[in-house]
Design brief:
The complex is a heterodimer of chains A (283) and B (452). Chain A is mainly α and 283 residues long. Helices cover 75% and strands 0% of the residues of chain A. Chain B is globular, with a radius of gyration of 24 Å.
């Protein structure tokens, strides 16, 4: 019973990987059937590292994912702490807080782009202008920051949910003991809550990093990677290579590189958090 | 309880899969799948397609409607990999010649000879406007039937011009346009000098910008396919365009495409706008425009060279060679691009809104001329005088007014358009943007084997 299922699973998940690896060594371009598809070794990989925009794209990816994860961790933590308290309408407040995560990415991106960031009739610019401030073209003059804001807004509830479930498993006695020992809110947070949450933070950061590295819809609907390449991430560049330049070989190579990059960044994140978690527990 | 729910769900799934199969088996019509752009003209086609189905019960139409960029991605992927999901695809003057050359499209001429019974009566290919027909041909054969055609022209708000005591010449120069924009630019009153596209995309900002480059005497490539993006003419043209938008353009110009500019013009916030002739019909449509009757129409501006200063574009329907239902597809294709269809739209929605720019007969129809008298002449003149084979001062190895007719253009055109957008947004200088663009295009041409 089990064996066919596993074979099916392997074929379904591993065949695309192997095909991608194979394509990444060819010069296949959709629009050039006149040029025969041929093996070109690691040329596509070399092209990636010698391309004029690779540095910028790697930097964008790094800034984007680190900023989104860090910001949503901070905001998520604040919200989780607030929502873990007892108050009237708590369930309603929780539902409201989760909503941004449930809205489809393209919808929230379009909403932010047109209703909030638009320099002519967006809410932010109108408010600023009414107060005598300048009309700022957010999506163009601060493109990467704008996309980071949108994605952070979407992913804060995710972090909040994970941390909230962590807070809920925290024993009341621990908090009471800390209070009896005369610990203030800050000390309680640092010595009791944070060590307890370290596992949850680890999971939240890890999962979110993996998801955020693959963000596509928000960039596609707001900036399409521009202006210039200021919001082109590794993932978005694969799309550009495959569906704007139609270079399947090179796009496959980029995809392989993106997978390696995702692994590296995840490991880095985990290592940083483990170290912090360790010192937290020691203290 | 749980088991009952499970049973219900299973039943529902089974039903969902079998019911359509059963109904299909009962009538067995040929289903043709059509990929179209989501725009007002195509939405009308969708509504009117009921009439086609009534006349042809043996053919069932299934539309896939997508925004322009996504349509291009889907259609190109589908056709180049020979996936065969579509029986009719909507493509433009850019793709048709090289799709035809690569053997991906069935020739409309050949199909009409092969299936004469599946052609709309009185189709008359010779009624198609010559330039549009040539733009959709390769090697003398028609590979796509035009649904609508367009050139570019200048729209201006007559009220604002009268209030400022200005008079628009019939054939303005860009210098004059800049001067008008300067005088009419009053951001404090929410009135802006000019709307022009700044949105990245080879079909967005690059379209009007390329016409400016042409008339400044610039070109993308010399006869040896050496990119010429840092030549003095190219740079002067781009600087002019960028500066015009920065000084007197609508706010957020770097994110404005056709639709956004149309809104600015139709809301009476822009004094001038240079864009597709097809917009004339929208600006004169009381349902979506506040400036009906207030818009002046003149030829697109020129500057140093009177060549390639207005573009030529057509959205057309083509049948991929992978289609299993070419006869049925031909039946629908010749219906929706026929004179009969134009008449049907005119009768149903009003004559000013018929798909323009495809047939000479449209411009001889008194009903259309009456409804569209403000812009019919200028549209036809613009389309007829746009020549994709002779759009630049110097001789070039490519065709196309507002694009370079090679497959690689989508890629580097998109990349260059982003650099231009950054220049318009002011996050990059024009020199920087063009220097980077020159590198991008050089690399792309090396990859593609044009350059060693």
């Amino acid at each position: 019973m089990l064996r066919p299922a596993i074979i099916y699973l392997i074929v379904l998940t591993q065949a695309p990987v192997i095909l991608t690896l194979y394509y990444s060594t060819t010069n296949w371009n959709f629009l050039r059937p006149d040029r025969k598809v041929r093996f070109i070794g690691v040329q596509n990989y070399i092209d990636f590292f010698t391309a004029y925009d690779t540095g910028r794209i790697m930097l964008n990816t790094l800034i984007f994912s680190v900023a989104v994860v860090a910001l949503s961790l901070v905001f998520g933590m604040c919200l989780a702490l607030l929502l873990s308290r007892e108050f009237r309408g708590r369930n309603f407040a929780r539902t409201l807080m989760i909503t941004p995560f449930l809205i489809m990415p393209t919808v929230s991106a379009v909403m932010w782009k047109n209703m909030l960031f638009n320099p002519a009739f967006g809410l932010i610019s109108s408010t600023l202008a009414a107060l005598g401030g300048p009309r700022i073209d957010w999506m163009n003059q601060h493109a990467l920051a704008s996309v980071i804001v949108i994605v952070t807004w979407e992913w804060t509830p995710f972090m909040m949910l994970i941390l909230l479930s962590g807070l809920q498993s925290l024993q009341k006695e621990h908090l009471e003991a800390a209070q009896i020992d005369g610990a203030g809110p800050v000390a309680t947070f640092r010595s009791v809550i944070l060590p307890h949450l370290s596992r949850y933070i680890e999971i939240g950061v890890l999962l979110e990093t993996l998801f955020v590295l693959n963000i596509f819809g928000e960039i596609y609907t707001t900036t399409t990677g521009g202006p210039a390449n200021y919001t082109t991430t590794l993932t978005f560049n694969i799309y550009l290579e495959a569906f704007k330049r139609w270079n399947v070989g090179r796009a496959s190579a980029f995809a392989v590189i993106a997978v390696i990059f995702a692994n590296v960044i995840t490991l880095l994140f985990l290592r940083i958090i483990r170290r912090q978690g360790g010192t937290g527990e020691a203290a | 309880m749980k088991r009952r729910l499970f049973l219900l769900v299973t039943l529902f799934i089974v039903a969902a899969f079998t019911v359509p199969v059963m109904t299909a088996a009962a009538q067995a019509p040929t289903t043709i799948t059509i990929a179209v752009v989501n725009n007002p003209d195509q939405r009308k086609l969708l509504e009117l397609s009921d009439q086609f189905q009534a006349a042809h019960p043996d053919i069932k139409l299934s539309f896939v409607m997508l925004p322009e960029n996504e349509l291009r991605d889907r259609v190109t992927t589908d056709i180049t990999t020979k996936a065969g999901s579509f029986d009719i695809v909507q493509i433009g003057t850019y793709e048709t010649p090289f799709f035809g050359k690569n053997g991906w499209l069935a020739s409309i001429d050949d199909l009409m000879t092969q299936y004469p019974d599946n052609v709309q009566p009185n189709y008359n290919v010779d009624d198609l406007i010559k330039g549009i027909r040539l733009g959709l041909s390769y090697d003398g054969k028609l590979y796509a039937a035009p649904f609508y055609g367009e050139s570019s022209m200048l729209f201006y708000n007559k009220k604002m011009f009268a209030a400022a005591g200005l008079k628009m010449p019939a054939e303005p120069t860009w210098d004059q346009v800049r001067e008008f924009a300067r005088k009419l630019h009053h951001p404090e009153k929410k009135q802006y000098g000019i709307a022009l596209r700044g949105l990245p995309g080879w079909g967005e900002v690059m379209a009007p910008l390329d016409t400016v480059i042409n008339t400044w005497g610039g070109k993308w490539f010399d006869m040896n396919w050496q990119p010429q993006l840092t030549s003095p003419e190219f740079e002067a043209a781009v600087s002019f365009y960028v500066k015009l938008l920065q000084d007197y353009g609508v706010p957020g110009a770097a994110n404005n495409g056709f639709s956004e500019s149309l809104t600015m013009m139709a809301q009476g916030q822009a004094a001038m706008w240079v864009d597709a002739t097809v917009a004339a019909g929208f600006l004169e449509d009381p349902k979506q425009s506040k400036v009906v009757g207030n818009v002046g129409f003149v030829m697109a501006p020129y500057e140093k060279v009177k060549k390639g200063y207005h573009w030529l574009w057509s959205w057309a329907y083509a049948i991929p060679t992978t289609s299993q239902h070419q006869a049925a597809a031909l039946q629908f294709l010749t219906w929706c691009t026929s004179k009969d269809y134009i008449d049907l739209v005119g009768k149903t929605y009003g004559w000013a809104t018929v798909p323009p720019g495809t047939r000479v007969s449209t411009y001889k129809n008194p009903l259309y001329i009456k409804a569209a008298k403000a812009f019919a002449d200028i549209t036809l003149k613009s389309i007829e005088t746009a020549d994709p084979t002779d759009a630049t001062r110097d001789q070039v190895p490519y065709t196309g007014v507002q694009f370079v007719g090679i497959p690689e253009f989508q890629g580097f055109g998109t990349d260059v358009s982003k650099q231009i957008s950054a220049a318009i947004a002011g996050t990059k200088t024009v020199e920087d943007a063009l220097a980077t663009s020159q590198d991008i295009v050089t690399q792309a041409m090396k990859d593609a084997g044009y350059l060693k």
